[in-house]
Amino acid sequence: MAEAHLDHDLAGRVAVVTGGAGGIGSALAAHLAAAGCRVAVVDLDLGRAEETAGGLAGGPHIGLAADVGDPGGVESLVGDTERRLGLIDIYCSNAGVITGQGLGADADWEAGWRVHGMAHVHAARAVLPGMRERRFGVFVVTASAAGLLMMMQSAAYTATKHASVAIAEWLAVNYGGDGVQFHCVCPQGVLTPMVLGGSATAESELKAAGNLLEPGDVAEAVMAAIAERRFLVLPHPEVHGYEQAKVADRDRWLAGMRRLLHRVTG
After folding, report:
1. Domain count within the chain
2. What is the pLDDT of residues 175-215, one digit of tens each?
3. Which domain does 234 fall in, by range?
4. From the candidates 91, 157, 175, 242, which is the catalytic residue?
């Protein structure tokens, strides 16, 4: 994928990337740093966050530890970033969690709602007023193709990633324009620890649906969308066709998903 040429200069801008110490998050941090941003890499593990920040080009960059499902944690990371790097221009709400298979346990649902749902809300409350006042801002929500379609192996992942998409859409309607832009990232399978560390059946489902991409491919797609001011980011372009098929004939789509489920579970 060709590298995007931004039509507005990001050099000197301050960016936050949550879930930034690995996978898509570390790739986003690297691309933003290469574009000249000062980056706050946020993760639950402070050591990994600082290590990732230390390996970025340019700078200064910082690593921070925070639980993005906790409003106090988000307020803290925003305050620390603005004290150390400056006012936040770009916020990548990227952290994600693995949820249990099937209907899962209550704890799986709670974790999903906190990280795939409320983390975006906490971040929006913390940074969007300032972005609107300054008339510049980029707010990126990492959702999933499961938020447009489904992850057959996990009800909790499917439902909470649908919430990610819905929140991103709502924010784009209510806060978009006036220099603030929103992006919702919906990849299928990406070669991250979350995917590779999951169940064999879930990995088979992702492989059956399409190619497994590198995290850098997703980051490049996000940078292109920022440049083009395009809301929906589909690193796997075929997802567009899958979503069209779902809307055109939902019963047929559901039947097809049942056949796929039977194939990947044996």
Report:
1. 1
2. 999 899 999 999 999 997 765 555 555 555 555 556 899 99
3. 14-238
4. 157
Whether residue 252 is contained in a domain is answered as no
| Annotation marks residue 157 as catalytic | yes
Has residue 1 been placed in a domain?
no
Residue 38: give its domain's CATH number.
3.40.50.720
The single residue listed with the structure tokens 């709670």 is 110
Residues 167, 117: contact at Cβ < 8 Å?
yes
Give the Cα separation of 43 and 64 in Å (integer): 6
Say how many residues make up the chain.
266
Look up residue 26 and give its two tokens: 């570390």
Q: Which of 132, 183, 127, 121 is nearest to 14 (CA)?
A: 127
Angle at CA of residue 192, ends 27 and 60, nearest 5° = 25
SS3 content of the chain, % helix, strand, coil (to 5): 55, 15, 30
The token pair at 201 is 């059946």
